[in-house]
Write the structure tokens for this entry.
Amino acid sequence: MKDRVIIIGNAGAARECYWMLREILPKREDLVFGGFLAFEGFAGNLSDLAHFSLGSDDDYLSSPQDVFIIGIGLPALRLNAYHKWKERGGRFINLVHPTVIIRENAVVGEGNIFTKDTFVSCDVKIGHANYLNGTVIVGHDARIGDGNFFGTFSIILADACIGSGNSLGVHATVLPKAKIGDDNIIAPGAYVYKGCGDNCVMAGNPALKI
């Protein structure tokens, strides 16, 4: 019996996940698409995909065949959705675009999304529920926690360490051995040389707390 892929989310990020999934399904005979769940009743916009809505995740009764993808961009909501459905026994899969390269000895958790042309180098460790949103580069020996969002063309260089719940803007760069804590916002185009603690907004070159 095929597993049924359920996308948690019902707005733009969820629609992007759906179209990427459409590219992958012809090569995965073990999977079929099941529909979208609004996370905690959020009134999103599925546009012409609205007929795939399964209602709110609070009302949904999952089956053993269900596997989940988190189609939500905001890190805090991604983490909430992941933990909520893990507590319910939900199974998560990684959504990986065919153009993505992940080195064999990289260690990757579950519930991650790797969109087009992303590259993950050797000896990298990536946690759960991260969203790498297009042409993201992760250098060797980097460490990444859970629930982060990486904007298009963001770069995490060798030995950098990133915690959980962070949002990196388009073209943000984390330089070698920099350490970023949890729940930070790294502005588009920022260059993070040394890092930051928790709950910071970092911008500029070099990136400074603002």
About this structure: The CA atoms of residues 58 and 80 lie 13 Å apart. The chain has two helices and 24 strands. The two ends are 52 Å apart (CA to CA).
